[in-house]
């Protein structure tokens, strides 16, 4: 359990600790991370840490929750103005890849959570999928996508984004090893191939495309991009 700051200064300090923890967990991993390293990264005293967090596990779980909130916000904000479900898919995936390119810690920390905090890992994916399911249900009712099990479809679509991002955002092009710092975005030709696959999978008629979203695949260069908060 963590404490809620009572002042603006406390809110800023707590945010600095979360950002520092994100950096440390992403760079050295949970087991090599320490509260001392986190406070040094944040530029605050060791005692200050315990004003806001009980320990390393607590702040790790909060980092996972914070990353989850930010990536969901980026995707939702980008897709909000889309004219149909396929356009929303395109905008949401662009926002997801943009966020992960700018915050590769998302991948590194979520993968640590599989062993460090399985509950936080499950909550991370469940929160994303639950919103996805509701969006697909609504699109089915309006005839924008074909009839399907929205739960299975949501997990499948999230898996596509997860692995495409891992391959073309997180890994080095040649060595296929995790790299540090901001990463390049998914190449446009990879993004378009992925979207054609998704559009065909969701289209109301087998093998067809319903109201394809604007973009190179449909003859224009207009895309909807999201920006991480």
TrEMBL record:
Residues within the DNA-binding region(s): 34-53
Keyword match GTP-binding: no
Keyword vocabulary terms for this entry: DNA-binding, Transcription, Transcription regulation
InterPro entries per record: DNA-bd_HTH_TetR-type_CS, Homeodomain-like_sf, HTH-type_TetR-like_transc_reg, HTH_TetR, Tet_transcr_reg_TetR-rel_C_sf
Top-level taxonomic group: Bacteria
Region named Disordered: 201-229
Amino acid composition bias (Low complexity), ranges on this chain: 201-220
SUPFAM superfamilies: Homeodomain-like (SSF46689), Tetracyclin repressor-like, C-terminal domain (SSF48498)
Keyword Transcription part of the UniProt annotation: yes
Identification of the protein by name: AcrR family transcriptional regulator
Native source species: Arthrobacter ginsengisoli
